[in-house]
Design brief:
232 residues; alpha/beta; Rossmann fold; Alpha-Beta Plaits; 2 domains; 4-stranded antiparallel beta sheet; 6 helices; 15 strands; globular
């Protein structure tokens, strides 16, 4: 079947999400990311829990918490575990080296904390998210409100073209109460270097550049899934 447009994207998201759920085994502590693709993975996990799967989960956002609770997935506080066995998350862009841009949904800080506590990270994405070079998708940077104008001016002066994220006519606030500047960088030649550079700016909490984190990316094309592994 040849799929196109929005229908193609939704089928691919569902295909990748449900494939990721197959990696979850009984007794695991599972990190749950945020976003429209992870939604399908969480829905599938809810079905598996209903069928007897025993897991505990760590949520990366209020939206994910609400969804997981509605599906009777047991949630625990991230501070109540020393490690997470597996985290499933989406990506706004992912390259063939498994560097990624995340944070389109605003949960980049909690997503990165969850990922860094995880023994294994799986990203799921539809085919439109796989790129040769990161940077077409705006790069989210989470910034504390206090002194944010100075941060904005620094980013602007270095040619990173920041735009304050607005929702419903108001400054968008993350679950931590911070702002997000979306940087229109163009192609990013050194994701790891840019991540480090941005974090040196006082007031920057976290960036949406995720490097050296994903172990596997499940990228769906129509109704098939391509498995990409870091370092291969």
């Amino acid at each position: 079947m040849i799929l196109k447009g929005k229908e193609k994207q939704e089928i691919e998201k569902k295909t990748a999400g449900e494939k990721a759920a197959e990696f979850v085994k009984d007794g695991m502590i599972v990190g749950l990311g945020t976003g429209s693709t992870v939604y399908y993975a969480i829905k599938k996990l809810g079905e598996m829990v209903n069928d007897g799967l025993k897991i505990k989960a760590v949520s990366s956002s209020k939206a994910t918490t609400k969804l997981a609770e509605s599906l009777n997935i047991e949630l625990i506080n991230i501070n109540d575990t020393v490690k997470i066995d597996l985290t499933i998350d989406g990506a706004d862009e992912v390259d063939h080296n498994l560097n990624g841009i995340k944070g389109g949904g605003g949960a980049l800080l909690f997503e990165k904390i969850t990922a860094l506590l995880s023994s294994r990270n799986i990203w799921i994405a539809d085919s439109s998210k796989l790129v040769n070079k990161l940077g077409k998708f705006p790069l989210p940077v989470e910034v504390i409100p206090f002194g944010s104008k100075r941060v904005f001016e620094i980013l602007n002066s270095t040619g990173l073209n920041p735009v304050l994220r607005i929702r419903d006519g108001k400054n968008y606030l993350t679950d931590s109460g911070n702002y997000i500047f979306d940087l229109h960088t163009g192609g990013i030649n050194d994701p790891e270097g840019l991540d480090k550079e941005l974090k040196l700016i006082n007031g920057v909490v976290e960036t949406g550049l995720f490097t050296g984190i994903a172990d596997i990316a499940l990228v769906s094309e129509n109704e098939t899934v391509k498995i990409l592994k870091r370092g291969k």
